[in-house]
Amino acid sequence: MDIETDAQIRAAALQWLENAKHRHPRGEIPAKDTSFHVFSPKHGNLTISAFTPTGQGIWKPRQLQACLSIVTSSKHIYEDLFDEESGVLSYKYFDGDYDHRYNKSLRLAMEHRLPILYFRGVRPGLYLVDVALALEEDPNKDGVLLRVLPDDVSLFMRGVKKAIEEPEMVMLRHSTFVAQRRLRQAEFRQRVMKAYSKQCAVCNLKSEPLLDAAHIIPHSQSGQPEVPNGLSLCKIHHSAYDQNMLGISPDYLIHVNSDMLSQRDGPMLRHGFQERNREKIYIPRKQSDYPDRDKLGQRFEEFKQAC
Ligand SMILES: [Zn+2]
What we know:
- This protein is α+β, with helices and mostly antiparallel strands.
- 36% of the residues lie in helices and 24% in strands.
- It has 2 domains: 3-165, PUA domain-like (Roll), CATH 2.30.280; 197-306, DNA Binding (I), subunit A (Orthogonal Bundle).
- 31% of the residues are buried.
């Protein structure tokens, strides 16, 4: 196998995916936006298609020996079994012919532990795309089992050469990374609960199982798990805050969006939202735990725009 060319094209494919997810924020990538350019010392300037729309399912550009992507079209989504919880996909071989070149290319990707792009059709011409790793052949020898990698592993996988040379190291580093992140999130929750004396900053509900440590600036926008970037909110107010139905201004005042203010329906809406409008949130005792005014302000701009 030409590992060098494979690594160049595969790295470019993963980069294409990352850029495509930015261009299409809902993650639904149109078939017409699936080609990318890459320079290979051996083959020169190449335009590569990330997948095949023709429907055979397994795709490899002619410069590669191992498969680059697999597709499950919206019509056939139930033929390939994807278990959302474990992220494991059982992918059937093409055409039932074990030694078909597409099937061989899929097994080659499995033997070398190469990341594969997994296209899932949501409707004709529109795909959700993830990175998957072929783990082993299906016991019935009629397909392979693949693990769909969470986005953060996909980022790790961008060092494709590293994944080829030391796949175990990449996975190990990732599991350490996930474990550390879980630990940081758990610590964050503990510190926020303590700072807010285990109550919702908006409605003062004191039932801990119903409380969340909410981020002011979300994790996805590099918000850190630190108390000044946190708010203790009950599930309802957390959800409302995340969806900009409720905002908190830098002067710690609650703002309920105009839609919610104009509705007339029931006690939760009245006590939980309308009567809270322009009230002050509950603030931690320690000044160092106060929610950061700049962060609140940044987040409040988003709320105002959504109104
Ligand atoms: Zn609440």
